[in-house]
Amino acid sequence: MKDIKNPKKPVIYYYIGVLVLILLFNMFVAPRLFGPKVTEVPYSVFLDKLDRGEISEVSRDDIQITFADKKEPRNIYKTGVMDDPALVERMEKAGIKFYSPIVEPASPLISFLLSWLLPIGFFMIIGRLMSKRLSKMGGLNTMQLGKSNAKIYIQSKTGVSFKDVAGQEEAKEALWEVVDFLHNPAKYTEVGAVMPKGVLLVGPPGTGKTLLAKAVAGEAKVPFFSISGSEFVEMFVGMGAAKVRDLFKQAEEKAPCIVFIDEIDTIGKRRESGANFGGNDEREQTLNQLLSEMDGFDGSKGVMILAATNRPEILDPALTRPGRFDRRIPVELPDLPGRVAILKVHAKKVKLAPGVDLTRVARAAAGTSGADLANLINEAALRAVRNNRKTVTQDDLEASIDVVVAGYEKKDRVMSDKEKTIVAYHEVGHAMVAALQMGSAPVHKITIIPRTSGALGFTMQVEQEERFLMSKQDIENKIAILTGGRAAEELVFNSITTGASNDIEKATQLARAMVTRFGMAEEFGMVAFDQQQGQYLGGGYSSTCSAVTQSKIDELTVKIIKEQYDKATRALSDNLSKLHEIAHLLYETETLTGEQFMEILSRPPLLAEGGQEALEGGQDKEEQT
Ligand code: ADP
Ligand code: MG
Ligand code: ZN
After folding, report:
1. How far apart are CA 409 and CA 587, in angstroms?
2. pLDDT given for residue 186 in this prediction
3. Dihedral of alpha carbons 68, 70, 71, 73, sign
């Protein structure tokens, strides 16, 4: 968003600058402009010239003697005053006019005006301008404390329109209605429809909530006030409430208009019940002020309040009750068509090589947000430049998916051969368990290049289409894939490493969720013991159950993982020769594509191996092809 540029330099520089200018002006420029050049000479030179009769006029004050010679145009000299009683006599003898002023002073009024009043006036005007700007920033001007520092955007200033927000069709539609209402309120009031006073955008970080608000500012032809929740509670205690008051006063003056409060959770956090030992008073006052301001004006005035948060569950219930933020617009992570659309929007900013398939990229980048995708395109463009290319290729895009998902390649990490071999088996273990199970997403890529995120390698699977439901079977398969890495290590080396810690964590989470949230454990049935805390921030879970139940949950979780681990081990040991073959190839090439991997896996085995039987719950993929 373009906004008013705040002056960054402290005022003091301006003041010093102006002072220096005045001094320079008075020392060098003014005498030249308003008087002839005066040369300073020693007293002896004065006497010398006097005796030779070269002087026409002399004047004298307490500190200096000024004299002019007889040339045309005359030169003017000055010299210090000496205690010289004979001087008057000598001058009389030479017939010189003395005590008469030589330098015709400019009218004293004018010279005073020019050399002092003018610069000082200039100086004061600049000072005034500066303090005005400062107060616009909500800065330190004490007269202006408590003014809100909301920035006002008028339409087209932000340069963002709904076109720039890809996907999020429902959100755009809902917001469009709001904008439309502000333009033609009559259309709605005729039918008796009342617009909600407040609209709350909720969704995970990076999904485009702030972007949507900017687009509203760009589309609505009404003033748009934008402020971030944290700006209410910055500098001084007690200022937050005053700022809210001021913001709403300004908004009412400018109505119809839109007020946007970003990250509203910073002030809208649920108030504590019961005793409050200080600390949160400031925020509470700010929130109370916001609540009463929202009640204070009626919707017909045309002030629409828009807010965004990624933690709706911590908002005070008073904020979300009808009559305040009663319209809630979810801004979710994009689905496949949404991701394609976002990639297209951002790809316009870079030069794509012909034949680039953005859908393929979008499919591989499952679970990413709009911000991730914007970043992905940029990373790809940077990679193209690094490789001295003029266009962004499919390769660049694929590589930057890995960067966004797993971090940069860590070139300086040198693994020993032994470690590299273990990692290769580990990753192929994941990939093979995935491929040998029915219903798992196809393997897209296996790599053992270490990443800055700490991963020593990874296996990427890509769903062919978007999934919204997972069956019990699906989750079990997922757990089996996660255990596949460790299973391969144990099978081949008969020892285990720490490399699987992340897998273990994820598998445990899934298994526990089956028991405590998805009602998938027969022993408990449809009972939920855990509640999610941060819906959009991947927060933890709070547990509500007795210690006895707790230990039973743990027992079931362990059992589920054990079963899946055994299943994975069986699948791998049945295909041991393939495991060796693929792991060796991966060790050599460091990266295998899904196609290469499947090609080897579906080839008939070199040595006839006993019982390539189907896994329970599914058939071998290779037997289908
Ligand atoms: P948040 O929801 O956290 O406020 P932002 O609106 O700040 O997310 O999004 C960050 C950046 O991600 C945007 O500036 C934009 O470049 C990109 N982005 C996010 N969602 C979209 C989208 N739907 N279409 C296009 N770009 C998007
Ligand atoms: Mg934001
Ligand atoms: Zn692993």
Report:
1. 16
2. 84
3. positive
Selected residue with higher pLDDT from 433 and 222:
433
* Cα gap 603→609, rounded to integer Å: 13
Are the CB atoms for 484 and 572 separated by under 8 Å?
yes
- Whether residues 325 and 195 share a domain: the answer is yes
Spatial distance between the Cα atoms of 94 and 6, rounded to a whole number of angstroms: 69
* β 591-593/443-447 pair status: antiparallel
Residue 157 lies in domain: 151-330
Q: What is the pLDDT of residues 348-368, one digit of tens each?
A: 999 999 999 999 899 888 788
Count CB neighbours of 418 within 10 A.
9
Any atom of ligand 1 within 6 Å of the Cβ of 371:
yes
CA distance 26 to 20: 10
Amino acid at position 265, single letter? D
With a pLDDT cut of 90, the percent of the chain lying above it is 26
* 454 lies in the same domain as 573: yes
Asked if residue 167 has its Cβ within 6 Å of ligand 1, the reply is yes
The amino acid at residue 520 is M
pLDDT at position 123: 80
Is the domain of 443 the same as that of 587? yes
Mean pLDDT for all residues in the chain: 80
Read off the pTM. 0.64
Ligand 1 mutation pick, 158, 207, 266, 336, max ligand atoms within 8 A of CB: 207
**Whether 382 and 252 share a structural domain:** no
CATH number of the domain residue 345 falls in: 1.10.8.60
> Is residue 24 included in any domain, yes or no?
no
β partners of residue 55? 69
Sort strands 76-80 and 64-69 into parallel, antiparallel or unpaired.
Answer: antiparallel
User: What residues have their beta carbon closer than 5 A to ion ligand 3?
Assistant: 485, 503
Please indicate whether residue 338, judged by its CB atom, sits closer than 6 Å to ligand 1.
Answer: no
Q: Decide if 411 is inside a domain.
A: no
* Cβ neighbours of residue 297 closer than 8 Å, sequence gap 6 or more: 248, 252, 303
**Do residues 464 and 402 both lie within one domain?**
no
Residues 297 and 385 in one domain: no
Looking at the CA of residue 205, tell me the nearest atom of ligand 1: 3
Q: Are 286 and 390 within one domain?
A: no
Q: Is the pLDDT of residue 234 over 50?
A: yes
CA-proximal residue: ligand 1, atom 6 (nearest): 208
Which residues are known catalytic residues? Answer: 427
Overall number of domains in the chain? 4
Any domain includes 507: yes
Q: Say if ligand 1 is within 6 A of residue 207 CB.
A: yes
